[in-house]
Q: What sequence folds into this?
C-alpha cells in the first residue's frame, strides 16, 4: 500500500475538512489536512502529495495564492490541484482567471462526486507522466514514441521501425556502452519481426539519416555503441 496516492487537504471549515478527510481515507488515500494556506504549504512541501484539495476562501493566504506558489515551485512539478469553491459565482471568477488548477468542485458536493473527481484527476496526472516519458529529448533531437516520430532541429527524420527502436534505446541511456548482441536482443525483443541481424547496418543507416547529428551515436571499438554523453 506504500504506493497509494498522497493528498493534502487545505480547508478552514472543520466539518467539511473532516468529512473530506474521512472519505478520502476510506478510499485508501494517504491524507494530511490543514486549516489555512501557510500550514497547507508546509504540509505540501513536507509530503509532496500527488494531489491538493484546496479551498478557495481561506483565512490569510487564499487558495489562489497557495495554488500559484505550488505551481511556481519546481519541486512540486506535476502535483494536481482541485479547487474547492463555496458558490457558483466564485467558480465563475476562478474559471475567468484561468486559475491553472486541474479541476474544481463547488460546495456543497456529494461524497461520491468528490471521489469521482479525485480519481479522474489522478488518472489524468498519471497519463500525463506517461506521455512525457514517451518523449525523449536530447538537445534538438526529439524521439516521440507515441507518434513514432524522430525530429532533429525540427526536421523529420524517417526511420524504419528497427532503427527507431535502436535509436530510442541508445538515447534513453546516454553514455552507456552496449554490445552488438545486447542491442540486437533489444531491437528484436518479443516482436516477431524479421530484422537484419547486423547492428552495424542499422547504425550506419541511422547516422546517414541523422546527417549533422551522425556523431550522436559513437562507435566503441571492440565493444559496440553508445549514445553520446553530453558534458
Ligand atoms: Ca473557506
A:
Amino acid at each position: 500500500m506504500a504506493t497509494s496516492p498522497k493528498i493534502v487537504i487545505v480547508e478552514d471549515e472543520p466539518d467539511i475538512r473532516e468529512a473530506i478527510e474521512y472519505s478520502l481515507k476510506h478510499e485508501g488515500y494517504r491524507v494530511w489536512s490543514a486549516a489555512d494556506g501557510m500550514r497547507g504549504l508546509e504540509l505540501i512541501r513536507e509530503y509532496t502529495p500527488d494531489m491538493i484539495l484546496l479551498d478557495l476562501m481561506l483565512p490569510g493566504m487564499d487558495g489562489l495564492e497557495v495554488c500559484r506558489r505550488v505551481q511556481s515551485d519546481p519541486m512540486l512539478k506535476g502535483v494536481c490541484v482541485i479547487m474547492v469553491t463555496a458558490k457558483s459565482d466564485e467558480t465563475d471568477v476562478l474559471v475567468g482567471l484561468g486559475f491553472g488548477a486541474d479541476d474544481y468542485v463547488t460546495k456543497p458536493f456529494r461524497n461520491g462526486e468528490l471521489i469521482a473527481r479525485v480519481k479522474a484527476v489522478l488518472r489524468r496526472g498519471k497519463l500525463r507522466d506517461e506521455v512525457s516519458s514517451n518523449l525523449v529529448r536530447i538537445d534538438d533531437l526529439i524521439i516521440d514514441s507515441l507518434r513514432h516520430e524522430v525530429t532533429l532541429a525540427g526536421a523529420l527524420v524517417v526511420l524504419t521501425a528497427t532503427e527507431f527502436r535502436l535509436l530510442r534505446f541508445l538515447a534513453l541511456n546516454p553514455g552507456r556502452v552496449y554490445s552488438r548482441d545486447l542491442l540486437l536482443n533489444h531491437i528484436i525483443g518479443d516482436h516477431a519481426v524479421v530484422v537484419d541481424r547486423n547492428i552495424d547496418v542499422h547504425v550506419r543507416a541511422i547516422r546517414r539519416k541523422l546527417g549533422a547529428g551522425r556523431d550522436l551515436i559513437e562507435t566503441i571499438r571492440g565493444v559496440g555503441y553508445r549514445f553520446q554523453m553530453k558534458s
About this structure: The chain has two domains: 6-128, 131-227. Residues 12-13, 55, 57-58 surround calcium ion (CB under 6 Å).
